[in-house]
Automatic annotation (TrEMBL):
<feature type="transmembrane region" description="Helical">
    <location>
        <begin position="21"/>
        <end position="45"/>
    </location>
</feature>
<keyword id="KW-1133">Transmembrane helix</keyword>
<keyword id="KW-0472">Membrane</keyword>
<keyword id="KW-0812">Transmembrane</keyword>
<protein>
    <submittedName>
        <fullName>Uncharacterized protein</fullName>
    </submittedName>
</protein>
<keyword id="KW-0614">Plasmid</keyword>
Amino acid sequence: MSRERQAMQSDRAPASQTYARVVPGAGVGIMLFAMTLSSIVLLAIKASGAEAPKARIVGLGATSCQQFNDDIKSNPALRRDYLAWAQGFMSGIILSRPPGVDQGLDLAPKTFDLISQLHFLEDHCARNTAPDFSDAVEALYKRLRLEGKT
């Protein structure tokens, strides 16, 4: 090998070093591009899920308030079944709360007994036929929370 050729080869750097010499700061630029792209993706995900997804409700609570109205009108005995579902659903709400929140909340206080709760649900669904029955139960739960504070 000639002396000139050896000198040329010793001056050559690996391709990654050559690229870095040709484009100073390219590694930083690529890293900034990747971070920017990641940020955009994360913001898009966050924006699309701004509200926490609602749990899938099953059973009587999955019906609309209009269906509840129709059911109890055609078969008054179903009122008991709907109320039992509501009590179970509200018990689930209490269990999902962080420690100390709604702890000891009475779902059947003497000041707002089960018959009063059933009337609350009937009145709520008579005024709001479109929402689900579970939404009426959530409104009842909020009412019971107020009752517990008095």
